[in-house]
Amino acid sequence: xxxxxxxxxxxxxxxxxxxxxxxxxxxxxxxxxxxxxxxxxxxxxxxxxxxxxxxxxxxxxxxxxxxxxxxxxxxxxxxxxxxxxxxxxxxxxxxxxxxxxxxxxxxxxxxxxxxxxxxxxxxxxxxxxxxxxxxxxxxxxxxxxxxxxxxxxxxxxxxxxxxxxxxx
Length: 168
What we know:
Blueprint: E1 2-6, H1 13-24, E2 30-40, E3 43-51, E4 57-63, E5 69-70, E6 73-75, H2 77-84, E7 93-99, H3 107-114, E8 122-126, H4 133-141, E9 143-146, H5 152-167
Parallel strand pairs: 1-8, 1-9, 2-7, 7-8
Antiparallel strand pairs: 2-3, 3-4, 4-6, 5-6
Helix pairs in contact: 1-5
């Protein structure tokens, strides 16, 4: 089972990953991370990585000036790379939210994702429009599901059942 969620920003890709994690975490070992928005006074100011196993958080990007930028955000490549060392690859299901422009600034992240491309039991979220050889390979190899407001609840249920069926 290799699934990748995509869709417009804010459609619920991270929420879908968290719901799948919540539904299955008592049934199997799940590792990986989600990327959550950080807001101050209603405005998005950055993104934090959250380890699904430990709850540990690390800044991925924040509004500001710096060496590595994506739009108005400075990307903390070193944080991402040390955070990857905390992700267990010995689990039944690995969830990686997201493979997108910020994360792809790290060669270590690209290698990390590349090592998961032939593994069973992987869920990625992928940036809707970004182009990169790794994203092209995910789009080619994985079942890519575009989330919409109409299908996102149903898709979570379907993926939970697919993962359960694979496990039994």
